Amino acid sequence: MSQQRHGNTPGNAGAVPAFPDLPEATIARLPEYLRALHNLAEAGSDTISSEGLAAAAGVNSAKLRKDLSHLGSYGTRGVGYDVTLLIDQIEYILGLDQRRAVALVGVGNLGHALAGYDGFASRGFRIVALFDADLEQVGKAINGLTVRHVGELRRAVVEDGITIGVISTPPSAAQGVADDLVAAGVTSILNFAPCVLSVPAGVDVRKVDLAIELQILSFHEHRKASLTALPGGLVGEGGNQEAVGS
Amino acid sequence: MSQQRHGNTPGNAGAVPAFPDLPEATIARLPEYLRALHNLAEAGSDTISSEGLAAAAGVNSAKLRKDLSHLGSYGTRGVGYDVTLLIDQIEYILGLDQRRAVALVGVGNLGHALAGYDGFASRGFRIVALFDADLEQVGKAINGLTVRHVGELRRAVVEDGITIGVISTPPSAAQGVADDLVAAGVTSILNFAPCVLSVPAGVDVRKVDLAIELQILSFHEHRKASLTALPGGLVGEGGNQEAVGS
DNA sequence: CGCGATTTGTGCACGCCTTCACAAGCGCCT
DNA sequence: AGGCGCTTGTGAAGGCGTGCACAAATCGCG
């Protein structure tokens, strides 16, 4: 592979190193590696082998090595990977060192919980604004933030430099909110509403549908149930551990 | 990933049709088709073309046809698919007609919201039991259910015929809860705790990590930001719409 | 009854991802 | 200094999934 490390292309004027062209599958796994690495660092490990990190992240070690090789070889043969160095690298690649500002729209049942979820703050994000269309909710304080009316969205996005929006409204309102977010300049959306959003080119949408996750599990339950009725029975079936992420 | 060799014996004597051997990718999309179909049915459509359903589900029409062809041919050439027939078929395949009983462990911030989430009840599941290790929470009523102590888990799973468990505890408690669920007979787990669970063969685990979803979006933001700094700029970049699910 | 319009079902090719297997590289011990 | 054990990085092969393009099938209409 032509690995372009920090030795940059001569013509690149930016201070940023050439941005690696990572496979989607790899990108989806980097956060998991990062979490595992943080645990290891906290436990006092300085270095970790691909085997060890793979186990901690729940993946195959060959896959992990190939993933990491894509971002430019930060391991030492015979030793392993430097934990803190790798953390810095992955956080840089993911852009987490910027602690991006996030807006959350819809503080109903789920949105309320998301607004108070520690995991966002502790893993690279700042929820800086909450919105709702319901005047009943507007003005309420959640986790130190005041819920504002969705009409103020545009101004807030610009003022606070928000680049990511989270939608946790009912599905009927989701498309409208998405349109507002895009119009305000948001280019990444995390959608919890069970519906398809249509957005212009250049805007990324990820969808999390909680019921769908259960339905997929239900399928496997159904399959397992119908298999146990068969003569062969289930012999040495491998446990299925699948992580979300496309 | 999975290593399942479910040899489907041709001489299946059961009244149930031979269980189809669906690709994982197809399974993950069936729930989305189902949701779109319910919307269409509510709107009064009797039949729908692959093109129309694909648009409603946010996928390519060829992909949709191939997916549906895997579960037998329920369309009519020149006409399209019968909406209600297709709904019944997909619900049967996913095992949703059984309205599986679900246990939820951990009624903290997120768990509380999940316990009250309408989407579960309206899309084929019954949350029948809530558990927590915190005695402060035990006894409280959420959405008509009383929170019980996690020690009662085993008995409840057996008595209520629970087959799916949802873990929304802190990561430190998740593995223990998973062990308890498995010991009680649960064979499918939806894990919201940001950690890897190890479970015996035959148990399915799906993981939803909210922070990871944001981190993936953050990567794309980072990439987009570094691209706009380049001379070419972004030319006709296709909007990325990715759904969760492996 | 036949024809054309329409839409499904699918063979095929391509690309991405995973996994194996091993050479290359590194540190440690003697 | 040299050899040995350990670990990374990667070439190659195979499998899976996607999307095109088209044949087969069905309906409606003249």
TrEMBL record, chains A, B:
Annotated GO biological process: negative regulation of DNA-templated transcription; response to redox state
Subcellular locations according to the entry: Cytoplasm
SMART domains the UniProt entry points to: CoA_binding
DNA-binding segment(s): 32-71
GO molecular function: DNA binding; DNA-binding transcription factor activity
One GO CC annotation: cytoplasm
Residues reported to bind NAD(+): 106-111
Matches recorded under InterPro entries: CoA-bd, NAD(P)-bd_dom_sf, Rex_actinobacterial-type, Rex_DNA-bd_C_dom, Tscrpt_rep_Rex, WH-like_DNA-bd_sf, WH_DNA-bd_sf
Keywords, in A-Z order: Cytoplasm, DNA-binding, NAD, Repressor, Transcription, Transcription regulation
Residue ranges of domain CoA-binding in the record: 95-196
HAMAP family attached to this UniProt entry: Rex (MF_01131)
Family membership: Belongs to the transcriptional regulatory Rex family.
NCBIfam families noted in UniProt: PRK05472.1-3, PRK05472.2-1, PRK05472.2-2, PRK05472.2-3, PRK05472.2-4, PRK05472.2-5
Assembly with partners or alone: Homodimer.
Role played: Modulates transcription in response to changes in cellular NADH/NAD(+) redox state.
Protein name, entry field: Redox-sensing transcriptional repressor Rex
Organism (species): Winogradskya consettensis
Organism placement in taxonomy: Bacteria, Bacillati, Actinomycetota, Actinomycetes, Micromonosporales
